[in-house]
Amino acid sequence: MPAGSLPIYGNYRGYYTKRPYTDARLALLDSDFFTGKTVLDIGCNEGWISCDIAQRWGARKVVGVDIDDELIQHAWKRRRAVWSLSAPSEELTPDSTSSESQRKRKRDDGDTQLAVAASRCGSIAKSNHFPMAMSHLFGPLPIPPADAPQASLCFPHNVTFRTADWVKTGVRDDAEGYDVVLALSITKWIHLHGGDEGLLSFFRRIHTVLIKGGLLVLEPQGWEGYAKAKRMDPKLKETAKGLVLRPEELTPSLEEIGFSLMRTAGVTGEGGFRRTVDIYVKS
């Protein structure tokens, strides 16, 4: 987004610097919610949540996508910054990976071992071990090679970022399918750009890339927030005139697509930012 232009896709700069380090929306979820899972974070902004899930929640793989390439570049920097603050991981020490027989046994164990390794990485990768001043003074720490045993399952190798208008094109990682898809604070922008059908197409694409039984974590933005957003651009204002679907009425439409509401995890925020976090399951 060029300097001075308006964030008409919700692509705000410094969005997560205004939030606590541990995002309140993630705090509503169970501690093992992402353990061993493949996760898609749509509208990842500068990658704070994507990195948090990859590092602290034991995810097997996290893909963050955003329409704004500048934000994606910041997300890659965030990945390295978080890595530089982390405690050393025992998974990547020479003593724990030197035995060829151990490596072979891990390869032969299949998907169960992959999930266990991802879980171990999540528990070992401790955040904020080093002070931020270390990176400022001496630069970020080098990232270990991705071909080290189990490295691809551990932070930071288990998180990647893509620039894409995911609503229209998706990304290559979609072909593998996801266990969990996050759609946090983005429905308003998709709705104002694509209208009712554009928003429904977005949910249909999510349904397509989720595995059976996969979960959609949805934070719909309230209707009252559309008034300010649509004033950013004449096209958004024009689209808003034809909107019939309301954020608080999404469940019936999602059920028609093939989702079932599992539960409302809770409510976060205050004022216009007070929103529910709903968990849907692909039937």
TrEMBL record:
Highest taxon, organism lineage: Eukaryota
PROSITE patterns membership: BIN3_SAM
EC numbers for this chain: 2.1.1.-
A biological-process GO annotation: methylation
Pfam family, one: Methyltransf_25
Matching PANTHER family: 7SK SNRNA METHYLPHOSPHATE CAPPING ENZYME, BICOID-INTERACTING PROTEIN RELATED
Protein name: RNA methyltransferase
